[in-house]
Amino acid sequence: MFRSGRYSGFLRPISYGIDLFFIHFLAFHFFGLTFPFFNFVVFLTIAWILLSIRSGFYEIYRFTHIAYIMSLLGKQGIIFLLIVFSFFGFYSQYNISSATIFKYILTVMLCVAIMKFGIYFLLKKFRLYLGGNVRKVVIIGLNQKTEQLRKFFTTNPVYGYKLYRTFNLKGSDNDSLEDCMAYVLQENIEEIYASVGELSNKEIARLIEFVDNNLKVLKFLPDNKEIFSKKLDFSYYGVLPILSMRKIPMDEPFNKFLKRSFDIVLSLIVIIGILSWLTPLLGLLIKLESKGPVFFKQKRNGLDYKEFYCYKFRSMIPNPMADLHQISKGDERVTRVGKIIRKTSMDELPQFINVLKGDMSVVGPRPHMVSHTHMYAERIDKFMVRHFIKPGITGLAQVSGFRGEVDSESHIINRVKYDIFYLENWSLFLDLKIVFQTIYNALRGEEQAY
C-alpha cells in the first residue's frame, strides 16, 4: 500500500529498473554479443540488487544531504568495478581489454549519477512549484528547538513538509495530548514531531501507542539534556537494545580501507610530484638563511592519544621554546623564508610523510603540541574525542576559519566542535571538499597563516 504523498514505493523500483537498463544496454554497446551476454545480465542484476540493498544505495530521502549521495555513488562505483572485473576475469578467454571495461564502468556510473541527482532535484522542484509529494506534519511542544524546526519547515518548501499546527502542552492556553491526537486524525496528518522535554514518560508512551495504532510517523526532538543531541548508535546484544554514544563511520572496515587508500594515493602524489624537487630547493634556502636542520620534528598526540613525531619544513630559528609556545603574529623566531612557506602552508608538506607512515591522515583534527594537548584536555570539554581518529594535515575546523594560533578559549572550543562533527559525519566526498578548500585558501592566502 502506498501512503498519500509518498512516492518512494514507486521511485525505488523505477530507479532500480532504469539503472539496470543502463548497466545492460551499455554492456551491449561496449561489448556486443561476443561474450556470454545472458550470463552477464543475470550475474550483474543479482549483484547490483544485493549490493544496493546492502549499501542502502536507494535509501534516499527528502532530507538526505548531497554529500551523502556522493558518498553512496563512490562506494557503489568501487564495488561495481570489482564485480565487473571479477566477471571478465572468470571469462578471460574473451580478451576484452581493461580500457574498454573501465570506459563501460565509468559510463554506467555517470548515467546512474545523472539519473539519481536528476530525480533528487526534480522532486525538489516538484514540491516547490507544484506542491506535490508533500508531507502533512504537526509539532508537539513549544520551545527553542521546536521553533527552529517550525522555521525550517516554513522556509524550506523544497523538502516538502507542510506544517499544519504547533501544539503547546504547557502554556496558559495549553492543548491536551488528546486534542493533538484528535487533530491528527481529523486532518489526516502523516508525521508528528514531538519535543521530548515537553512530554512526560506517560505521555510519550501514550503517543507511541497512538501512532502505532493509526499508521502515523512519530519523530522526537531532543530536549536540553546533552545525551539526546548525540548521534547515538543503536544495536542489539542478542535481544537487548544497546545505545552507544556515537557512531564513527571510519570504524567500518570498508570506510577505513577507502580513507587509507585515499591517504596513500594523495601522499605518494605529493611526495613524488612535489617534495622530490621542492625539498632540495627549500632546503638550500632554509640553510642559507639560518643554521639548523631543514626539517623540524615535534612530538604530537595522534590516534588513541599515542605520541608521534610530526614533520615540517623548519620556519623558525632553532630555539628551546619551540615545544612550549605556539607561534604568534609577528613572532621574531620566524625567518624570512619561514614567513613565506608558512603563509602558503608549504611548511606542512613534509607531513605527507607522516600520512604515508600511517601516523596521520590527509584530513582530520589538527594535532597539537603535547604540552598544549595536556592543557586543553583538562580545560576543554570533549577535547579528547578528537583522538578517536588519526590527526590530519588539514581539517574541517581549519577550512571553517579556525586555523593557526589559538588566541582564545572560544577558538579551541569551536575547533573541537568541528572536529567532532567531522569524525561523526565523515565521507570521502567531505574529505575531497576539505582538500580543495584547503588548496584554495592556500593560494588565496589566509590572515591566520603566519
TrEMBL record:
UniProt domain Bacterial sugar transferase: residue ranges: 259-443
Protein name: Exopolysaccharide biosynthesis polyprenyl glycosylphosphotransferase
Annotated compartments: Membrane
Pfam families, sorted: Bac_transf (PF02397)
Example of a GO cellular component annotation carried by this entry: membrane
One term of GO molecular function: phosphotransferase activity, for other substituted phosphate groups
Matches recorded under PANTHER family: COLANIC BIOSYNTHESIS UDP-GLUCOSE LIPID CARRIER TRANSFERASE, UNDECAPRENYL-PHOSPHATE N-ACETYLGALACTOSAMINYL 1-PHOSPHATE TRANSFERASE-RELATED
Bilayer topology term: Multi-pass membrane protein
Keywords from the UniProt entry: Membrane, Transferase, Transmembrane, Transmembrane helix
UniProt entry tagged with the keyword Magnesium: no
Presence of keyword Transmembrane: yes
Transmembrane segments: 20-51, 72-92, 104-123, 264-286
Primary localization: membrane
Family the UniProt entry places it in: Belongs to the bacterial sugar transferase family.
InterPro entries associated with the record: Bact_transf, EPS_sugar_tfrase
